[in-house]
Structures are given as structure tokens and as C-alpha cells.
Specification:
By secondary structure, the chain is α/β, with parallel strands linked by helices. The chain folds into two domains: about 1-65, Orthogonal Bundle (Helicase, Ruva Protein, domain 3); about 85-270, Vaccinia Virus protein VP39 (Rossmann fold, 3-Layer(aba) Sandwich), CATH 3.40.50.150. It contains ten helices and eleven strands. It has helices at about 5-20, 25-35, 50-65, 70-75, 95-110, 125-130, 145-155, 195-200, 215-225, 245-250, and strands spanning about 1-5, 45-50, 75-80, 80-85, 115-120, 135-140, 160-165, 175-180, 230-235, 255-260, 265-270. Strands 7-6-5-8-9-11-10 form a seven-stranded mixed β-sheet. Strands 1-2 form a two-stranded antiparallel ribbon. Strands 3-4 form a two-stranded antiparallel ribbon. Strand 10 and strand 11 form a beta hairpin. Helix 1 packs parallel to helix 3 (about 50-65), helix 2 (about 25-35) packs across helix 3 and helix 5 packs parallel to helix 6 (about 125-130). It is elongated and about 70 Å long.
Amino acid sequence: MYMKLIKLRKELKDLYIQQDKDPADVDFIISELLHVSRTELNLIENVDDQEEQIIREYALKRLNTDIPIDKLFNKAYFYGLNFYIDEFVLSPRQDSEILVDTAIKYIKENEYKTCLDMCTGSGCIAIAIKKNTQIDMLASDISNKALRVAKKNVKINDVEIEFVKSDMFEKVEGKFDLIVSNPPYIASDDIEYLDKEVRDYDPLLSLDGGDMGLKFYNEIHNEARRHLNDHGMLILEIGYDQKQLIISLFNDFNLIESVKDLNGIDRVLVFTK
């Protein structure tokens, strides 16, 4: 037996609309399951019983559990690359592509040779930078489970990156031309108010930034100077309301640039020693 795909898509999208969910997720789910692009969906006339069953299963799981798309498929797209994602790492955010853009720009302008990615998580930032430059990359994280995911993503994207398990700078040795970081920056008191997709499916370890979300920025501030070369640069992703707090915290560094995200919010700060 066969069902017209256009009818199945409409039925599922209507369900999503009724529950105030994004109907575009339906097409994403179907394209992933049928291994076609979303534009190619319009060329498929029918699905068989087995395909219909699995499409409904995934679509309803997404609808009824709030599980994010990337955790549903253990797959995320970031900076034009594919990444394996699971419950042990933060789902890559489009905002973090601003950090990658900024890092690549300064690496090429200054001919930087070495980079440290602090709090690497899935490794998406380090891998995206490495894929687009010749820089020697060291990536660190406190979580063994996150590092296993990052190492898997290195193989998927065919790059060479060295990893170290470290509580911030504890096990990091040497100096670098560039340090980048997207550390946990959600204030502890705000965790309970996050969207369910974030609060329930991203690891708390990758979200909780302590009091005012500044815990890890404090640690970076206290240690970064001794791990930066004289001409080195520090590039940080920040929360939507943290610009002035972090500029004040790093008042003994030189602020080079504040970069806005696609919504016009200051998202990345660039400092030199």
C-alpha cells in the first residue's frame, strides 16, 4: 500500500500548527528519513507503509516530547559541516557561527599558527575553524563523554585536532596565538526558565554559568593572559545581555571588536592582551 506524500506532509504539518510547533520540522524529518533534500520532497509522489510508519513515529516523537531535531537524529549541521550530536553535548547554535567567522578572519589577517578551543563540547567550533584554516588546534573539555563526541566529529569531518581533558586551563600547557571559547554562560537562576528543548535535552554542564553566568568568564580572565602569546587574541561568545559585564571583567585587556549576531545582538567579543 502507498500513501501520497503531499497528503502525509499536510496532515502532520496541521498537527504541528495545532500545537504551536514549527511545521517546517515535518519536512526536515521526512527528508532525513528518506535521504533526500527538502527541495526534492516535492518530486516524491508516494511513500510505502513502512516509510509512512517511521515518518509518523519520528514526527510524533518530536511533537510530543520536545526533543530537538538534532538529538532526534543524532545529527546537526553547523558551518556547512555535519556533526554527530547526543545528550552529552550542547546542540550547535547558529549564533556560534559568528564566533567561527570572527576567528577565521583574525587567523588569516594575523597569520596565527596555534589555537586553543576552550569548552569544546561537540568540537563544532574547533572543527569548523580547522576546516577553513591551517592553524594547529588544541581543544579542551572537562567531560570525557563530550570529548568522545568531539573525537568522533573529527573523524567525520576529516581534520586533525589534539584534545585534552581539562577543567578549564588546569591541564592546558603552553601558549597560543588565539584562544576561542563558547563557555557555559546561562545564570544558574535562569536555567529553569529555558525552553524545554534546551533545559531538558542539553547537558546542564554545558549550560550552567554560575552566578550571573560569569563563572567561566572569570576563570578565562584569570588564566588566559599566561596562555596567550604577546600578539595573541581572545575571542569569546557571550549571552545576549552580558556585553557590558564581560567588558568590565576584562578591563585589563584591550577590546578590539564586538560582533553582532543576525538579530543585531552583541554575540562575540574580541580582546588582546
